[in-house]
Amino acid sequence: xxxxxxxxxxxxxxxxxxxxxxxxxxxxxxxxxxxxxxxxxxxxxxxxxxxxxxxxxxxxxxxxxxxxxxxxxxxxxxxxxxxxxxxxxxxxxxxxxxxxxxxxxxxxxxxxxxxxxxxxxxxxxxxxxxxxxxxxxxxxxxxx
Length: 144
Description:
Layout: H1 2-20, E1 22-26, H2 33-42, E2 48-55, E3 59-65, E4 70-74, E5 79-83, H3 96-105, E6 111-117, E7 120-125, E8 130-133, E9 139-142
Antiparallel strand pairs: 1-2, 2-3, 3-4, 4-5, 5-6, 6-7, 7-8, 8-9
């Protein structure tokens, strides 16, 4: 009997975990206002392929454009990551300290990806370099 109850408890926990990690397509208007503003100011909203809301450990939003560009936001609509593939990330989405560093140190390069992680921020350049920055946007190192 104890094994039966244990198996039922495990099954219930597994089903709760599976239902908590759901993705659903939503409309642009259902994004947090900060995310809507960032997209409207920096991208052509008529080129949006889809908007996805992911309910996992935390709520996240993904906006994908017809050209392959992907932009991710947290539950409050703060930018988490932007991947423009081979195009340039709009300057307005990059902190000025990072933008200045990249333009000064790598004048022929452009930023094609920008994002934050647990330790700070990362910028990928069109020349293949990945630059790491701390939480205050100070350059740390090149990560190949």
